[in-house]
C-alpha cells in the first residue's frame, strides 16, 4: 500500500514547491468556474462548493483522460466531475462538459471553443480556474498566454499539504506531480505555451534536490 507520510528529510523542499505553486487568490464572483480535469476529485468537490456559494453562475468541467486517470475515471475526467457536482447539488443546467482535453493548454483552448459554440464567449470577462493545489501557478501562466482577454483567478480545495497527501493516498505520487508541475513553469514559456513565471532560486534548489532524490516520473524529456 502506498505511504501517505511525507518523509521528514524531504519536508522542507516539498513545502517550498507546494507553497510556490499555490496562488490561492482571494475568491470573488466571476463569470465562469472551470474545473480542470485530473486524478483529484477534490477539484469537482470544491467547484461545486464555490458554485453553491454564488461565485459563478456557470461551470465548465474539462478533461478526457491521462494514463493516471483512466482507471479512476473510465468515462473521462470531466464526465465524472460533472456527476460528482450533480451529487453535490449543482443543477445540470449550470454545467457544461468538455470531454476531449488531454493537457492544460487544451483545457483552456477547448473551454473557449465550447463557450463560443454555446454563444457565451463574448460575455466572459473573468474566470476562476479550479485545479489541484500545485497546478495553480502553471494553469494561471497558461491561461494568461492563451486567453489574455479575461481576468483569471486560481483556487483549489483549501487543504494543508499533509491533509492533501492523505486525500490522494500516495505521497510519492504527490511529490512526483509537484516536481513535474514545477519543471513546467520554465519549460512551457520556453515553448511558447505559457507566460514567463519568475522562479526563485530557492525553488530551483528544492526542485533539484527532489529530482536527485528520484522524483522524476513526471518530468518532461530535455
Strand content: 5-15%
What class, by secondary structure content?
A: alpha/beta
Radius of gyration: 17 Å
- Distance separating the two termini: 32 Å
- Order of secondary-structure elements: HEHEHEHEHEHHH
Q: Main β-sheet: number of strands, strand sense, barrel status?
A: 5 strands, parallel
| Quaternary structure state of the chains depicted | single chain
Helical proportion, percent range: 40-55%
Query: What value does the average pLDDT take?
Result: 96
What does this structure look like?
With 222 residues, the protein is α/β, with parallel strands linked by helices. It is built from 8 helices and 5 strands, in the order H-E-H-E-H-E-H-E-H-E-H-H-H. It has a 5-stranded parallel β-sheet with strand order 3-2-1-4-5, sandwiched between helices. Strand 1, helix 2 and strand 2 form a beta-alpha-beta unit. The model has no long low-confidence stretch (mean pLDDT 96).
Secondary structure elements and pairings:
Blueprint: H1 11-21, E1 32-36, H2 42-52, E2 59-62, H3 77-87, E3 95-98, H4 104-117, E4 126-130, H5 136-146, E5 151-155, H6 161-168, H7 171-190, H8 201-212
Parallel strand pairs: 1-2, 1-4, 2-3, 4-5
Helix pairs in contact: 1-7, 1-8, 2-3, 4-5, 5-7
